[in-house]
User: Fold this.
Amino acid sequence: MNVFLTGEVQVGKSTLINKLIASAPELRYAGFRSVSVSPRDSNALADVIIQSVHKHRLTEPNRVGIRWGRGIFDAFPENFEGAGVEILSSIPECDLIIMDEIGTMESKAVVFSQELLELMDGDSPVLGVIKPINAPLLDSIRRHYNTAVLEVNKRNREMLDREIRDTLFGVPGKLYMSCGAVVLDCERNVLLIQSGDGHWSFPKGHCEAGESELAAAVREVREETDQIIVVDAGFKLRTKSVDSSRWPDSVFYLASPKGSFGQEKTDECYSWHKAERAIEMLKYDSDRYVLQRALEYRYASV
Assistant:
């Protein structure tokens, strides 16, 4: 599964990528980085350069934008279509593709965007960084069927190495585990699904062979509720099954909704409920405990 990291500026997203690469010297990787360098125009904040992860070029064709500060920038889509497409199209067979980072400057670079999305459909997993904003290319990445988007923040950034590695490369064998997520929006609404016997719970389901717990959770939320989510893997809670002879233990992550895939679901009943009401609706004590802990985690610093 592809993994894209998102979060505030300088929270440690690229650092996590560098740590993964450094921890696996045998890893064959390729891709690109967009870096800020000293601007040619003294009135600008920075020039933005796109370059291969292995070949650092500061030439004019690689200059894809200028940052002026306060969110104002100039983008050069023709250079994305030139140097950017050249980098993407020359990526060899490898173990991992790096895309660090993607924002709004690429919006008008049609061929570059198409090449990028096609690479996400390939055999090599992608590890990238996207800005936490809405833009056509960023939304397409979040909607990609085989992609997990992870929030990086100061609380969780030291815990994500293993989650990223397992989600990218999978885990051996099959985990007898049910994986899901507490999907909580900014207004304390919780996403619940109603099972066939009428009780309410969180979207979850079984891990498939070779699948990480996080990958399974993302897939199950998508399949059961059609929701696009961003996962905060700093919250990860395991619960024991109420009937271990019939059902496996469960693991839950915390997630935020980022829209839907636009595919009508007819086999599940799911809806949003205020957190206080959701606690009353949940059938099992273990689920109520998970939601209470998730709320504590989400609002601990508020």
Notes: The two ends are 33 Å apart (CA to CA). The longest strand covers residues 227-239. The mean pLDDT is 92. The chain is about 30% helix and 30% strand.
